[in-house]
Every structure is written in C-alpha cells, then in structure tokens.
Design brief:
Layout lengths: L4 E7 L5 E7 L8 H11 L4 H25 L14 H10 L7
Antiparallel strand pairs: 1-2
Length: 102
C-alpha cells in the first residue's frame, strides 16, 4: 500500500528532467473476507491503488473535520449586528451593494 509519494528527479543525457514516483511499501493484515470483498470490487491487481486512495480520502476527510471543529468556536454566540433582526440584516446586506442584481 502506498501512503507516501515523493518525486525523485535526475537529469538525462539529453538534459531533460526525468522524474519518477518512489513509493513506500507497507505491510497490513486484513481478514480473508475483507480481501475477498476487495477483490470482487476492484480486482486482485488493483488492491494497493484502491487502499491507497481510500486511506488518502479518509485522511483528507479527517483533516477537514479537524478544521471544521476548530472553527466552531471562532464566531461568538452573541453581540452581532444580525442578532436583533436576522432577516432585516440579510435584506440590508443584499441592498447594500449597488452592483448586486436581484
């Protein structure tokens, strides 16, 4: 399974750069049933690519949730212009920009 990729670049005789991705191997243990389901879904030759993509997506989702949770307390609960009349504040924002259409 590939978790980390890095580029290794070298110069060819023609002075054009040649780059390749260097992958890191990782040993994981999976139940036979999980492997069978994986093979039915993507095929035995696409296991690593599927697992790598799935782990990358899960890590990206986790990172986004961390950012969302960190931002939850960024806006205070009170003391805003819109607290007294939310609808009126929204209407004033819409009409406050003369270039806005609608």
């Amino acid at each position: 399974m590939v978790l980390r990729r890095r580029w290794v670049c070298a110069l060819r005789v023609t002075s054009r750069p040649l780059c390749q991705i260097v992958c890191v191997r990782l040993h994981i243990n999976l139940d036979e049933e999980v492997i069978a389901r994986l093979d039915r879904k993507v095929g035995a030759r696409r296991r690593s690519a599927f697992i790598a993509e799935t782990v990358s997506r899960a890590l990206e989702d986790d990172r986004r949730w961390d950012e969302i949770e960190a931002a939850l307390s960024a806006v205070e609960d009170g003391g805003h212009e819109w607290d007294a009349d939310r609808g009126g504040w929204v209407r004033s924002q819409r009409h406050g920009d003369p270039q806005r259409v609608g």
